[in-house]
Amino acid sequence: MRRMLGFMIGIFAGALVGATVALLLAPESGEKLRAEVRARGEGFLAEVRDAADARRAELTDRLRSLRAQRTGPTELS
Q1: 3-state class (DSSP) for residue 54
Q2: Phi then psi for 19, rounded to 5 degrees?
Q3: What is the pTM of this model?
Q4: What is the tens place of the pLDDT at every residue in 45-59?
Q5: How far apart are the C-alpha atoms of 34 and 26, rounded to whole Å?
Q6: How far is residue 77's CA from residue 60's CA, in Å, rounded to a whole number?
Q7: Mean pLDDT of the chain, nearest integer
Q8: Which SS3 state, helix, strand or coil, does residue 53 take?
Q9: Selection from 15, 73, 20 nearest residue 44 by Cα
Q10: Which one of 9, 12, 23, 70 counts the least CB within 10 Å of its CB?
């Protein structure tokens, strides 16, 4: 869990530094740049949500399998 938290903090810090550098060195107009940054940010958030949903589904399946192993198969009467 700590590794995941550290990774997420690293991603956030890297994105923040990257965005700051992009704003300072951008050759485009402010309006174009803001639109591009907004689009990339929305894309990034969509990717994070998709990854979180996939991980949640994976962990849910694993939890079900562990619970099934613990209780064992049920007998039919």
Answers
A1: helix
A2: -65, -40
A3: 0.50
A4: 999 999 999 999 999
A5: 10
A6: 29
A7: 85
A8: helix
A9: 15
A10: 70
